[in-house]
Amino acid sequence: MILVTGGAGFIGGNFVLDWLSNSVAEPILTLDKLTYAGNLATLEPLKNDPRHVFVHGDIGDQILVKRLLAEHRPRAIINFAAESHVDRSIHGPSDFVQTNIVGTFNLLECAREYWNGLDGHDKQQFRFHHVSTDEVYGSLSASDPAFTEVKAYEPNSPYSASKAASDHLVRAWFHTYGFPVVTTNCSNNYGPYHFPEKLIPLVILNALNSKALPIYGDGQQVRDWLYVGDHCSAIREVLAKGRLGETYNIGGWNEKANLDVVNTICAMLDDLKPRADGKPYADQITFVKDRPGHDRRYAIDASKVERELGWKPNETFETGIRKTVQWYLDNPQWVEGVVSGSYREWLQKQYS
Asked: What angle do CA 159, 165, 171 make, to 5 degrees?
């Protein structure tokens, strides 16, 4: 069995579904706090699957985590649990410090104690896989080379600073205690089951509901886009074959400006679900005041993971975004369950 923390969130939920899509895959114990972005509806296909156990809880709850480790005896932990939205970290950084830093510390300590109690083969095979972000590296200019694993950390938001701190803790637990860790830093994910506060699902749903499509500043902030299914396959490879103590950057080799992403989605919706009035969805684009500390460009150099482990993404941005748009068109019930009153209040606060 493996323990997946944050497994009801966007990337974690996709990973759990992907892992168990193979009928011979080993079982998963999912631990999730079910904050606003955690959604059990994502895991609904596994409701009656005996290979999946869900526990509602916090990685910061040491008593709970220790009990789960003792009862289920996982051979690996994959830590997706995190507060992850930059805008929310600007308005309320304390949750990010508590979950991303203190929570990761608590999880590491519980896991280290558990690992120390293992014997022989079980101890040798145990892994702690920490999932992080490219935002810890800071911002790039248009001419800078992409982030490599040796790039100095220069976080610019409370979110990225909290993730950088968690990365440092994971590294220290390897070098100080010999605790068997691997870390992956990914670029911007997109795909099914994405909470609609992030750019791509927000644009899709606002477009379909005849709402404004908010673009920060001039819309020329560049991100590398990684389809979530590709990210899941990369994590499987790193978990299976990654060198202990190493960091692997996971990217999609798809740098796009935010405005180009939005225009691509609009054009795709024009084709798949035209507006009733015949006008293009791009007419709904609205530029809003840029957010504080908005990094200009991220870019991931994912050559190390390809060179060492043979992984590279299967999806181009064009194929991945078409799958994503179609998924949202085909799954209105999931969307309706997510878009709660508190979410609408958040959008009003952020983009008014």
From this structure: 140
Which pLDDT belongs to residue 245? Answer: 98
- The answer to whether 295 touches 142, Cβ cutoff 8 Å, is no
Number of structural domains found in the chain: 1
One-character DSSP codes across 88-107? HHHH-THHHIIIIIIIHHHH
Task: Write the CB contacts of 101 (distance below 8 Å, at least 6 apart in sequence).
Answer: 162, 165, 166, 169
Residues labelled catalytic: 134-135, 159
Query: For residues 241 and 249, what is the distance between their CA atoms, to the nearest angstrom?
Result: 15
Tens of pLDDT, residues 204-227: 999 999 999 999 999 999 999 999
Tell me, what CATH number does 310's domain have?
A: 3.40.50.720
Task: Report pLDDT digits (tens) over 5-45.
Answer: 999 999 999 999 999 997 667 999 999 999 877 888 899 99
Note down the domain range covering 159: 2-193+227-253+299-314
pLDDT for position 159 = 95
Residue 178's CB: how many other CB atoms inside 10 A? Answer: 13
